[in-house]
Amino acid sequence: MNEKINVSILIIGAGPAGTAAALGAKEAGEDSILIIDRDTRAGGILNQCIHDGFGLMRYKRALSGPEYAQLDIDSCHKKNIPILTDTYVHTIIKGDDHFTIKAIATGRLYSIKAKAVILAMGCRERTAGAISLPGSRPAGIYTAGTAQRLLNMQNTLVGRSCVIVGSGDIGLIMARRMTLEGAKVQAVTELQSYPGGLDRNIRQCLDDFDIPLYLETGIVSVHGNDRVCGITIAPLRSDRTLDMKNSQYITCDTILLSVGLIPENELSRSLDIAIDPITQGPIVTGDLMTSCPGVFACGNVLQVHDIVDLVSEEAKRAGRTAVSFVSGAYADTKELFSIYAGEKIRYCVPQVITPSSTTTLSLRVTEPITDATISITNDATLIKKRRYSFTQPSEMIQIEISVPENLVGSLEVNCE
Amino acid sequence: MEQYDVLIIGAGVIGTSIARELSAYDLKTAVIEKEADVCFGISSRNSGVVHSGIHYAPGSLRALHAVRGNELFEELCSQLTVPYERIGKLTVAFEESQFPTLEKLYTQGVENGVPDLQIIDAKRMQELQPGVGGARALYSPSTGIVGPYELTIALAEHAHAHGVDFIFTEEVVSIKNRSDLYEIQTKKGSQISAKIIIDAAGLYSDSIAHLAGIDSPRIYPCRGEYYVLDKRLEDELQLLIYPVPGNHSSGLGIHLTNTVEGNILIGPSNDYIENKEDLSTTVQILARLREEGHELLPSLTSSDFIRSFAGLRPKLTPPEVGGFGDFIIEDHDRFILLIGIESPGLTASPSIAISIREMIANHIPLALKKDWDPSLTREERFLELPEDRQEQLIAEDPDYGSVVCRCEGITKAEVLQAVDRIMGPVTYIGIKLRCRAMMGRCQGGFCAPRIAEILKTERDITIDEQFYKGIESPMFEGLLREESPHE
Q1: What is the third-level CATH fold of B86-144+220-315?
Q2: How much is the average pLDDT of B177-206?
Q3: Mutation choice for B interface testing from A41, A47, A92, A106 by most B CBs within 10 A
Q4: Which of B243, B218, B281, B234 is nearest to B45 (CA)?
Q5: Predicted confidence (pLDDT) at residue B359 exceeds the cutoff of 90
Q6: Distance CA A61, CA B149 (A)
Q7: Please, are residues A361 and A412 in contact by the beta-carbon 8 Å criterion?
Q8: B281 to chain A: which residues are within 8 Å by CB?
């Protein structure tokens, strides 16, 4: 059957971003909201994150992933916000004053008209190909998140003895999880001189279990024809090439990759939405609107976050501004100024802002920095300055700024 | 002992092409394969190019079969519903010193009977591929691209539908010539006899020939490494672009290749190795491929590289000689040896199949089957169908609405069809090659766990029985805790 639906705001993704965006829109007075998710249940990636540590900022207590997700899902149910699960959006077409969205679900097709769309599709893991993992291609190579889903949601252990390539948070969490399930985690390797994941995860997931972390270490080759039988690793020289003299072979049956996340912007690209080459998420305004008017983005589809509490906050904002868009209160004639990520700043979201607005800037530094000062300036005028005793790329920094009325050229964010 | 008229050893594109050709005749034919599935060797690990025939010495088997094979491809692929596009190719000269080579290729191509060849200038080159470098090029419009595993699988399925037996995970270890019958023994102890043996064992066709006491030249495996790029870049490349080959090169140079699915390939490299099983990619070659890729495609980013892989060429020329040897196709007293079928083997396959059928006719009178239908129809991918057809299908089978592989948009119904089409043991690679699930930009990150669940619940294949590429290749360690309703 082909079902036709009309809504004001369609939200794609029912993870923490999608559900919080819906709640933000509802609070702003919008009643016609629909959330669609391709998985069989709402909650997104949090469903497989059975460890605790979620919600420390928002609820001042440590929740598990599913608990955190459920709170917003419950609120959606209470507020009669429908969530269609097992439903896959495959096409979005921009019309004059609305979007047409085509989706499919078990036994049915959907054709949906919406005035605004909020993108909340999250991200996917980088693959062996993306990091150019050399060697053979046997069974036993998994991304950490895939192994996590199998372990936590499908009662399936991927291997008994593993090496984790990359020190992203999911890899660190899985190092602990695999150990607790009786597997031996031989080592975690990282190309950089600093870990990719949060400090607390290094302590709680590696140090507490005596799992070695090899920094500035690369992969020489994966071994095994049918199933992984080992991996050769080697330290990096100062010129970033592999120091083969000091290479070592580690016997293992599994390799988990935790080498970064990529925002899932295939639908966004189909709308010709401008993508930031660094974040790989849409370029947005302070209101989280993309370059396609009426399409908003929040959560990991916009920029990969490390703390879900900040995802929820960002998503609520997207929900509210989407409401102001559909109610016609949104002035699209506002002049836009770009924000330039300067010295030691990897990226800054939003990438463009409007004058006389209040905006939260999310940014990351390019390297670990002690006694960092981050300043936001416009044409030699200082707008805001913040000091940090220590910061590193794995920690997202958020700074709230009031954008002045008169701007000259672009805003600049620098760190020293 | 099972008795056949013809036993084909090897289920690559050559073996399955021959099987399909023979399936039209009243013959009892079987294909025997040491791997778990068709297409697990050379045939799934190449550029998927249907060559025009410019590169081969006039009068050689490579020239003959490439040109005739190329002519046959369009009809073959339309009969079997296999993706094929005749997109054309530029062989580019970057400097004047290479112009004579271009002329030579042109003359050679014309002599080989390659249609519509033209030497074109930089201006025309820009029209065909904006931004392409080089001063002059040989344009061969008949060069095409095909899905190499889709083709091999379709050939096998079509042959099977017309009575050819397929025997998997059986490695031939002994071949005895008993005057009018060959007796074959496998590693597992099975015995098969056949009047005619076709040695289409690819990298191992020398060892198979030796088993039969035939003095065959040896094969030198020569590895080519590749990168697969995200489909995002599909429109960047309009046709195939190759550099003019060097004098003693054993390959055609690193280049970009469009695939019928829209992923561009970078590669292949060209390195002789010792071990016929070594499909490893290497740090050095991958770095070189990335570098060349960035040069050829400036908009490339690191997340566009979704996978690297390697394939092996079964070369007859030793490393110190390099270059290419000609195909060897010989009838040794009803043992038909096919060896050194490297590039353009895929292109040549339909033509080689005809030649083999003719060779068989020298031994066994061949009678065409009356009911042989050359076509194999297959539904297009669900998400690419028109909406009314989608509605129809989804009403018949609700599983069409459940998307399992997000990146390629493959539904549960299509995954299950792929599972059911596998003739040998079910493997993840077998599923992947048949429906493209796990082949997209996330490389199975999202859908592999879902496929594990589907195999378990819909086809009673337990977690312990799920394999990646064969029964020595378990996907998982096992269940974490016993799954029983009551403790």
Answers
A1: D-Amino Acid Oxidase; Chain A, domain 2 (3.30.9)
A2: 97
A3: A106
A4: B281
A5: yes
A6: 53
A7: no
A8: 132, 134-135
First-to-last alpha carbon distance for chain A, in angstroms, is 60
If we measure between CA atoms, which residue out of A101, A122, A252, A134 comes closest to residue B445?
Answer: A122
Q: Where does a domain end: A259, A276, A297?
A: A259
B1-85+145-218+323-378: which CATH topology? FAD/NAD(P)-binding domain (3.50.50)
C-alpha distances out from residue A259 to A165, A228, B40, B301, Å: 7, 19, 29, 15
Output the pLDDT for position B134.
Answer: 87
Cβ-based neighbour number of residue B35 at 10 Å: 20
ipTM: 0.94
Structure tokens at B420: 């059911």
pLDDT of residue B486: 56
Active-site entry in B51, B55, B162, B255: B51
- The mean pLDDT value of chain B amounts to 94
Residue of A nearest to B438 (CA): A127
Are A339 and A352 a contacting pair, CB within 8 Å?
yes
Q: How many CB atoms lie within 10 A of CB B107?
A: 13
Task: Give the model's pLDDT for residue A327.
Answer: 92
Name the CA dihedral angle for B443, B446, B447, B450, rounded to a multiple of 10 degrees: 150
Largest CA distance in chain A: 66
Does A176 share its domain with A288?
no
Three-point CA angle A362, A365, A366, nearest 5° = 140
How many beta-carbon pairs under 8 angstroms link A with B?
A: 166
Three-class DSSP category at B13: helix
Distances (CA, A) of B93 to B101, B115, B124: 8, 21, 14
CA distance A356 to A19: 29
